[in-house]
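Human:
If only I could read backbone structure tokens as easily as an amino acid sequence. I am handing you a single protein, as its sequence and its fold in token form. I hope you can help me see how the letters and the tokens relate. Thank you; the sequence and its tokens follow:
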Amino acid sequence: MLNAAERKARLDEISRVVKNGPFRDNWASLSQWRLPEWYRNAKFGIFIHWGVYAVPAFNNEWYPRNMYVKDSPEYRHHLETYGPHRDFGYKDFIPLFKAEKFDPDAWAALFEEAGARYVIPVGEHHDGFQMYKSELSRWNAAEMGPCRDTSGELKAALDKRGIPMGISSHRIEHWFFLSEGRAFDSDIRGDIPRDHLYWPSVAGEMDLNDPDILPPDAAEYMEDWLLRCCEMVDRFSPAVFYFDWWIMQRALGPYLKKFAAYYYNRAAERGVPAAINYKHEAFMFGSAVPDVERGHFADVKPYFWQTDTAIAANSWCYTEQNIYKTPGELIRVLADVTAKNGTLLLNVGPKADGTIFPQDTAVLRAIGAWLKVNGEAIYDTRPWRFPGEGPTREKEGMFSEAAQSYTREDFRFTVKGGCLYVTAMAFPRDGRIAVRSLAGGEKSPFSGFIEDVEALGFPGAVSWTRDAEGLHIFAPRIQTDLPVCFRVTVG
């Protein structure tokens, strides 16, 4: 671990990079950032929640906090399975987190097969355990548990396949995450040294959505947060840096802007464009990419955005209770998000041994098989005049996702080159659909000429006509429960 003088030297270096680079730590300067073109074109990425919390594999990735919350399901499960918290606390899971079957090349191959264009592993979650080799804390995967630089190994595997890797930090939430353990006889009682996994575990009643919980006198903690984030920038040169919601804390603002300037300046030094993901209004609009967690927008947006969700409906990490979404449900999310100028970051939660659960693998492969046929309607596309048509509308905002019952009248639109792509969200068994937005005549919203209509993956399967009521497609040979993409060639 770095000593106090070395930490100060690192902070001084961060200040030097901010002072001398093209980006400064203020919103006026940071708003000069420009979205990387590769990111706009990618449309589909993989998120990875993997850490010590995969050992208990119970309920979700908030097990480290909830196991100390009296009378919670996690608290009761912990007592029944592992015994009293004073004898077996969260830190005692670390030796059980062995990752003995972790194969980064197999992961990278699976993500490539899934059609992912970028990958973002969690570098550090709320629990404070770093999933990479760190000089700032010994509580990391290279020195404990797996005793492997898991994120570094994954990056090397992804680099071989030309897949950009980002990284995510949820470190700021660690300030409160384990605090409930101070309320009773657990292994978090008493004075906690600064170099311990549990530091600082600040206790007390709090509203976690209050942006003023983190006090200005927590400077030592915020400096440590800054150092850890910048260390990940220097270790991985991440293509995207993802932040969770708690960076909205007012006291963190100066450190957040300093980090953004440091990251963007380092990217400028390398000549590689970079982007930051944020939630709520933690960043000035236009200085980073807004992220909508487990949710959508109802309509197309004039700006690029991201939704992050998980294959499991109830957890971001692997648990024995996971409820899995279907490939069709997730492909429809991808089609909807793409049509609305967004990108989908889809999470997978590996097991503690480093394997990816068979059902996760099956879902990823099914999405990849669909993209192999229909990817031209997704990758590198742009929104059309409006995102789609039909009676089914997605709910707007964070945590609004729900399985939709799409109809034969629901379509999503994208454009690329000389083609307009129509994705039929639920293709009917009789093979008959009518796209009203592409009707002919004076009252049509589209007055262009249509030269041809083809179904991707089904050559020669389509006949079509166009009148004042719509573009009528007849393709009875197409029998599938997945969305069907039509290439409409415009004259």
